[in-house]
Amino acid sequence: MPHAELKYSQELQIEPLVILQFIEETIHGHDTTAGECKGRAYPCEFTHHKHLYLSLSMLKKPHRDDAYTSALMAKIEKGVKGKIPESCFFSFSLEYSTNADVTNWHEVGE
Predict the structure, then answer these.
(1) How many of the other CB atoms lie within 10 Å of CB of 82?
(2) In this predicted structure, which of 11-25, 28-42, 89-103 has the lowest mean pLDDT?
(3) Residue 8 in contact with residue 44, Cβ under 8 Å?
(4) Which of 9, 30, 53, 80 has the fewest CB atoms within 10 Å, counting from its CB?
(5) Torsion 80-51-90-34 (CA) sign
(6) In Å, what is the CA distance from 63 to each residue of 47, 78, 84?
(7) How does DSSP assign 38-85, residue by residue?
(8) Is 53 within 8 Å of 13 (Cβ atoms)?
(9) Crossing angle for the helix pair 66-81 and 16-30, nearest 10 degrees?
(10) Would you place residue 91 in the very low, low, confident or very high pLDDT band (cuts 50, 70, 90)?
C-alpha cells in the first residue's frame, strides 16, 4: 500500500487530485503488486520560495531494487512536472518502509 503526500505552495496552480491519481496509475503500471496508493495533499499558505514536495512511501519487497526505484522515480518525476504549469522548486523522495510497519484495512461493522 503506497502512500503519497504532496506539500506545495498554495499559490501554485495545480490540481492535486489529478497528480495523486497519476502517481497511483504510474505505480500500478510499473508494479501490479503495489495496491492502492493512499494520497494526501497539503497546500501551504506560508512558504519560503514557491515549491512542490512529493514524498512517496512503499513497502520494501525483493523486486524493488535500485533499477526499479530509478525507473519508477523517473516516470513519476516527469509526469508530475508535466502537471505543474509554472516554474517552482521541485523535490521528490521515495522511501521504503521496514517490516515493522503496519499497513492493512480497518473494517467497521457488517
Answers:
(1) 10
(2) 89-103
(3) yes
(4) 30
(5) negative
(6) 37, 22, 31
(7) EEEEEEESS-SS-EEEEEEEEE--TT--HHHHHHHHHHHHHHHHTT--
(8) no
(9) 150
(10) very high
Q: What is the pLDDT of residues 29-73, one digit of tens each?
A: 999 989 899 999 999 999 999 999 999 999 888 999 999 999 999
Q: Is the pLDDT of residue 105 over 90?
A: no
Q: Dihedral of CA 67/74/29/105: which sign?
A: positive
Cβ atoms < 10 Å from Cβ of 7: 16
Residues, the chain: 110
Q: What would the 3-class secondary structure string for 1-23 be?
A: CCEEEEEEECCCCCCHHHHHHHH
94, 70 in Cβ contact below 8 A? no
